[in-house]
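Subject: sequence -> structure tokens, single chain

Hey, anyone have a minute? Need the predicted structure for the following. Not urgent.
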Amino acid sequence: MPIELDDLDRRILHELRKDGRASVSAIAALTHISRANAYSRVNRLVESEVIRGFGARIDPVLAGLHSSAYVTLTLEQEVWQDTRARLTAIPEVQHIALVGGDFDAILLVRARDNGDLRRVVLEELQAIPGVRSTKTALIFEDFDTV
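Reply:
Had a minute. Here:
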């Protein structure tokens, strides 16, 4: 059962998106609440899985991933679960979204270079039995908004 988020929860989430390493004391100060309240709120958000984990935001280029693209997929719907499992097993696929519209899914793919990106799209993605077609949009520049 999803929990109800209030403005304070949203402010805490905003601060954690800006800095996932922020201490509970820092979150308390930034949101103008007690440390105990901040600890309780963050713990509640973690236990309810609103917060799924804490991690690092990585610059893909500095990490050696010089070629990125959004790849849209047209899929056979009846094998989505198997297709999703195969997609998540490809290390270069960093995000998957099942969507409505002209295509069924969109992926964020980050690769070492264009040759590696080509391999992922043409040899890995298109080889998955549930994938009917792909379209690739190269990313020239991207940035986080938070």
